[in-house]
């Protein structure tokens, strides 16, 4: 028999009945990262007395407000910084908190390593619970506490948070009706890049059975030299030594205020381009790219959207105003052979060229490299998709941009807050059949390890297309 109260390692938590099961919100998986502890590995939560109220959303990681001009990205980013120390938490949406062993899907949100949360409306797990899956969304440290590389602190603390959440779920998700041996971790954008890095993290082995990488990159990590440039710039702007001890004394408000001044740093070196094309000053910091260091033999579902770069150009009108000089400057900053890149795309107008180069630099090339590496080296199956449905937002200019696949994966594409002239999907109705098709593929993958089409092999590169 299911209940709205569940025992966890920290204490009892009370959830709320939903249309499709039960929802438990803001359950701590690690101790609050406050003061100097913001730059330490995640620690076990001390627990609580009585019954914790899991019916309301909790605080979020410190983060800046993100503005995408004429496009309303609130459903993607959520409410921004909701203050409170206890934000290393997760939400669980389950058909029932009973003894059944259901597939578990754990979602890692995107936001450029500086923003986002499980409170975003897009990540409601109702459709997954309806279809027999336990859906978990995870909050992790962002920005300077999460990803600034500092002497005296472990690197990639946001990734360490996700690892801590996976360990917590291994020990606890059974009480929520989930099977810890059948766990799929999936993420989008920065979250997908974290998932890709977990495939190359020995400590993650055995914590998940399958992985989904939506518009991420297997080559999106900074080199140590690139990370040091960001650290030096942050320390100089704050007027402190670049150490964990010095940064531990600075309040989060100053970190958040500093972030805009770090965006756009020149991170090109003699050996590496900026994998984020200047759009974020933070990424994972690794000696080798995840695509070159895979260690987890799990099934992988991976893909990108056809016009990823449009998100960064269309809302500000740059698709129309881009020039050949803009295209050439971007190609030189992100591509090892800019002339070759431009030669392949010369027939397109400047705005489309700029979008294509940006999308490939941020997501396409790194996804292709991770796909090839997994198909060659892993014992798990590799399944590849391409999302091509064009949103009609911004007078049809947004197209198959970055993030547009998410409403179809979560099967909430008909929600009114995604529509209208400024909505992510635009004024036109979203195709219900496409949402059913894509969401069902994700569910089938979680249940059985196959999304409904043949595995990708280098000699037989099968790619499933969603949309026209």
UniProtKB/TrEMBL annotation:
The keyword Hydrolase applies. Residues 33-45 have a biased composition (Pro residues). Residues 33-69 are annotated as: Disordered. Keywords: Hydrolase. PROSITE patterns: CARBOXYLESTERASE_B_1, LIPASE_GDXG_HIS. Residues 3-452 form the Carboxylesterase type B domain. Gene3D superfamilies: alpha/beta hydrolase (3.40.50.1820). It is an enzyme of class 3 (hydrolase). Its EC number is 3.1.1.-. SUPFAM superfamilies: alpha/beta-Hydrolases. Belongs to the 'GDXG' lipolytic enzyme family. This is Carboxylic ester hydrolase.
